[in-house]
Structures are given as C-alpha cells and as structure tokens.
Write a structure and sequence with these properties.
By secondary structure, the chain is α/β, with parallel strands linked by helices. Among the domains are: about 140 residues, 3-Layer(aba) Sandwich (Rossmann fold), CATH 3.40.50.980; about 140 residues, GMP Synthetase, Chain A, domain 3 (2-Layer Sandwich), CATH 3.30.300.30. It is about 30% helix and about 25% strand. The strands form seven sheets. Strands 1-2-19-20-21-22-18-17-16-15-14 form an eleven-stranded mixed β-sheet. It has a five-stranded parallel β-sheet with strand order 6-5-7-8-9. α9 packs across α10, α11 packs across α13 and α18 crosses α19. It starts with 14 loop residues before the first strand and ends with a strand.
Length: about 600
C-alpha cells in the first residue's frame, strides 16, 4: 500500500489476539517473506546483480575507501578460504577486539561464509586498562583461535595478555606490534587449495554466525548463540512489513557499534539483504566526535537514519543553525528509526517540521523492541503513528506472550525464528531463559497503547526483572520509578539506583553530578553536603507529594562519593548501570541508607 504521508510502500499493522486463561498471545496477520539459508546468499546475489554498487565504505584521509559488491565478494571468498585452510570451523571462534571498519566487516562476512563464528567486543574492553577484566572474562569463556584488531600498536596492551598466548593475532596495521601478528593482507590472499564451494555448502541455517555478548546490566555478560537463520529470518520479517526497502537500495551513514546487535546485525545486514550501501560513520553523538558525524552526513547522506535519542537530539540542535546539514540529511530520507530509549516528543516534532521544510513530506518515523537474544527486531512500528514512545506490533512469525498484572501492565515473553537457542557454554542460564512453552523470558514489561485496539501497538513499560517487593509484599516498578526520579532530580544527578528489596521503604543511591558537590565532604563512600542534600530532599519531597502509595514513594536517599566503576563492572559497555553489581558491591552503603541515624542520610 502506498502511504500518502510518506510516499512509501508500507504494510499497515494487522494483528491476531488469542486470549487464554492467564495470558494473551499476540501475532501478526502479515505473511513473512522467504528466508535465505545464510548471509552469503545475499552477498553472492548482489555481487552478480550490482557488482559495482558500493557496499562498504569508510573514511580514508580526506576521501572515502569504497568497495563495491563484487570487490567485497572477492575479498570475503579469499578470507573464507584462508580460514578454511587453517582448519577453522564452528568450534574455532574469532574474537574481534576493535571497532567498526571495512576490514572488520570483511572478516566477519568471510568467517560467516566459511562457517566460523565471530565474537565482536566493545573496543573499550581492550583500550581501557580498567576494563581488561571484561576482556579476560570473554577470552576465558570463548577460548578463541584467532583475534583481530585494526591497529596492533594501539591495541598492544590487549593483544599482549597471557590469555591470548597461542592465539593467532591478525591486524590491519602491524606497526608497533608488541607480539607476533599476521597481516590482514595475508588473509586476503586466500588459498587456491581450498574447495570453497564445498566449505560454503556446509553453512546452513543452524550454523553459528556470531556470539554476541549481552551488556551485563543485571549479571555477567552472556554469549548469545546467533545463527544464520536468526539473522536471515529477522531481515525477512522486517522486509515483509517495510516493502519499500525492496524498491530502491537503501543507504546509511551509521556509527552504531557492531558489538551490539542493533548496529552489527540489524543495520549492517539490512544493507546486505537489500543491496544497500553502508558508510561507516567515524563520528558519534559525543561533544568531541559529533562534528565528524556532521561532516560525514553532509558528504554522504543516507536514505535511512538509525540512532539513539541523544543522537537525534544533537542532530536537531545542530540543524537549527546548520542549514547545509539539514538539507543534506532530509534530501533523500525515507525512514528515521530510533532505539534504546523513547525519543523526546519535542525532538520528534522538530524532525517532522524540518523534513516537511526540506522535502515536502515526512519520512517514516518508527521504533521497535528487541534484545541481543532476538537478533534483534521482534516488535516494530511499520505505519505512520505521529508520536514517540510506541514500539509497535509483533513482526511476522513472532509470537508475543503477554502476562498482565493488576494494572494491565504485561510481562513480555517472545517466540519466533529470530530467537536464540541459548548461551555459549552455559546450559543453566540457557535453560532458565525460557518458560515451559519455550517462550523467551525477556524481563521487560509493555502496555497496550489502546487496550480496545491492539493494532495501535504496544509501548515499553520498564523491566519486570528490576522490580522488587517491599517488606509489606508491595511490588515496586523500579525501572519506571528510576526514570521519574531522574526527571525530578535533573541537573543534580548523573544517575540513580532504586533500592528497597525486602525493606520497609524505597531508598535511592544517588550518583551526583560532580559540579554539584561542594568541597570534599565524603564519609566512607557517602557524601555529606548540606547544600546538595537539601536540594535533593526538596525535590524528592515534591515528587513524594505527587505519588500515591508506598510503591511509588521514595522515602530516603544517600549520595555516593565514588562514581560507578567500569573496572568493577558497575557500568556496562552500553554505559548503563549494572544495578545488581552496584548494590552487592556497596552493601555497606545500603545498610547506611536504612540507618536513620546516619548523617549522610536524606530523609523524605
């Protein structure tokens, strides 16, 4: 159906609801597109059909290193042959320790072509000494056969670790390497003695393609077993409801890191599946790197734009005065997609206004819900909705089990072809991830946008797995309460942790903004700062007056002197807090939070 608002061919939301005794099962009524057997099918197809079309590109000096589909195919085939010649297979993972790059993409696709899994890691695991503990954790868990870095000198400390003794280190740039390394060019030479067709013929839907580690926000990171079928099915599911992707090859300028499923699977494979072009943005939404993003978009704007809300916020702010960026960004933009959190409505509205001004029509503005365990898209908006905060309806082939509570908030469980079978080397956690009907237990909660019209979709409503009971037996929706607290304490705090499991009242750990702490007033890990304590108390009192019941009332707080520790895994590689780790590691401060005589306590 051609949509008048966006000018795109879209499929409207269409769902089926089954009401059971204790839950609801929600599915899509849209049929799913055919699913290819492995990612190599797409590469070989586009190398034949559009050999010179740009597939991969990255900054190279003042210009761009661009590789067409045929050139990428030849490189991927050579790498696959090199890996096969080494005897590598599904049991010999390759750990990728550096960030997004053309060589990273070639190695990943070459490994997939040969049936060898890759393990992309956050580059900070290797570059920040305090984060090496996480690198060691993964290396010990995976026991890789090969490791890749783009620059052996820059990653010298990481590739020198004893956990990599005996592991072949491959580097794009070998200068300054503290240990013996193989040049990436050696992989590109291939091996004429390998029967690559026979090697690739063994790569099927169930072949392991990646091991993607979760961010570890509630426990140690887990290695998600990601098969070719999961990734290929997910692209077919999305193409079923976004048919405009098949009408012209998409193009993106994308910074999202490939160790995360959003950037590394969702976006990169969407380009490959549809013969699109992936320009790697070497900027990101930070004060120092964002100017590079602006320059990149002006030179190579996309037809699709993927970002997190903070990134879209920075774009809007820059486009208020940078008319060249505004014109370039919207010139061919078909779809704007946000994930990670809800996009502020004022940012959404301003994006719409600018799009109308530049192009005379709106892009499709959507979001979705997914996890590393779901490859990732499972629920998606695929029609114009005119507002932020909606995650959509189930994609074709996906089943949602919705378990409502007394307030019609529903615990979300999912099943479908894009769902993992389990975690690498962890049978116990693999078994615990599913319920008796083999629905994945997500730990998330959702609500119907309109309970009387399920086709209006679902909205995200926090993490059920973060909820806890007070001593009275009352459930506390900790995720939502945290967001409310952050809003109330805006300008004073960097983040907060909601506490109170098996306690009589809800308490708050507060990580203050450094510029709000007056002098050095720390006391065994807590801050005693009368001015800041009074300001926080005032805001929490106002928040308490507007709340109803003990489950929504923060009654006490304590300001923490030390920021969340990356070294001690209190911060995930996504930058979110590992709540369980913080509360466990700071057990003494938790006791002080519930000590009414403690001078650091803020009583509300």
């Amino acid at each position: 159906m051609r949509d008048n608002t966006t000018g795109l061919t879209l499929v409207p939301h269409a769902v089926k609801m089954e009401r059971r005794t204790d839950d609801l099962v929600m599915t899509s009524r849209t049929p799913c597109d055919p699913v290819v057997s492995n990612t190599g099918v797409w590469l070989d197809k586009w190398a034949k059909d559009a050999p010179s079309r740009i597939f991969l590109a990255e900054r190279s000096g003042a210009g761009w290193r661009e590789m067409g589909y045929a050139e990428v195919r030849d490189a991927v085939h050579a790498i696959a042959a090199s890996l096969a010649a080494r005897g590598m297979d599904a049991s010999t993972p390759i750990v990728i320790m550096s960030g997004n790059s053309v060589d990273h993409a070639l190695l990943s696709l070459g490994a997939q072509y040969a049936g060898v899994p890759t393990v992309p890691l956050a580059e900070q695991y290797s570059l920040i000494p305090e984060a090496h503990e996480r690198l060691v954790y993964v290396l010990n868990k995976i026991k890789p056969t090969m490791a890749f870095v783009d620059d052996a000198g820059r990653y010298g400390a990481a590739i020198s670790r004893p956990e990599l003794d005996g592991v072949e280190i491959v580097a794009s740039r070998t200068d300054g390497a503290p240990v013996g390394v193989t040049s990436f060019d050696d992989l590109l030479r291939g091996n004429a003695g390998v029967d690559l067709a026979s090697v690739h013929a063994k790569v099927g839907p169930d072949t392991l393609a990646k091991i993607l580690f979760t961010s570890g926000s509630s426990s140690d990171p887990k290695g998600v077993l990601t098969t070719h079928h999961m990734m290929c099915a997910n692209q077919a599911q999305m193409a079923s409801v976004l048919p405009f992707l098949k009408e012209r090859p998409p193009r993106i300028m994308d910074w999202l890191p490939w160790n995360h499923v959003f950037g590394g699977s969702h976006n990169t494979l969407m380009m490959l599946a549809h013969g699109g072009s992936l320009y790697i943005d070497n900027g990101k939404p930070t004060s120092s790197a964002f100017p590079q993003t602006v320059a990149n978009i002006i030179e190579k704007p996309g037809t699709l734009s993927f970002n997190v809300p903070v990134g879209f916020g920075m774009l809007v702010q820059e486009m208020e005065t940078n008319l060249e960026l505004r014109k370039a960004y919207f010139s061919e933009l078909d779809m704007l997609f946000y994930a990670g959190a809800s996009l502020p409505q004022d940012v959404w509205t301003r994006l719409e206004e600018m799009a109308i001004e530049v192009r005379g029509r709106l892009p499709l503005m959507i979001s979705s819900w997914g996890m590393t365990e779901t490859a990732p898209a499972t629920i998606m908006v695929h029609e114009p909705i005119g507002r932020s905060g909606v995650i959509g309806v189930p994609l074709p082939g996906t089943e949602l089990k919705l378990i409502p509570d007394d307030e019609m908030r529903c615990e979300l469980r999912v099943k479908g072809p894009n769902i993992m079978s389990g975690y690498w080397g962890d049978k116990e956690k693999s078994a615990a991830a599913f319920d008796e009907e083999r629905f994945l237990i997500t730990g998330d909660a959702v609500r119907f946008v309109n309970p009387d019209d399920p086709e209006r979709g679902l909205s995200f409503d926090g993490r059920v797995s973060e909820d806890f009971k007070l001593l009275t037996g009352t459930w506390v929706q900790a995720g939502k309460l945290r967001l409310d607290a952050l809003d109330s304490l805006r300008g004073l705090v960097q983040d907060v942790v909601v506490c109170g499991h098996d306690r009589g009242e809800i308490g708050l750990f507060i990580f203050p903004k450094p510029d709000q702490v007056h002098g050095d007033n720390s006391s065994d890990g807590a801050v005693i700062d009368p001015e800041l304590q009074a300001a926080i108390e005032s805001r929490l009192r106002a928040m308490a007056k507007a709340s109803s019941g003990s489950a929504k009332r923060i009654a006490r707080a304590i300001i923490l002197a030390d920021p969340p520790s990356l070294k001690d895994s209190e911060v995930t590689d996504k930058g979110s807090l590992n709540v369980r780790k913080i509360i466990t590691r700071r057990a003494d401060l938790l006791e002080r939070l519930y000590d009414n005589e403690d001078p650091a306590l803020i009583r509300v």
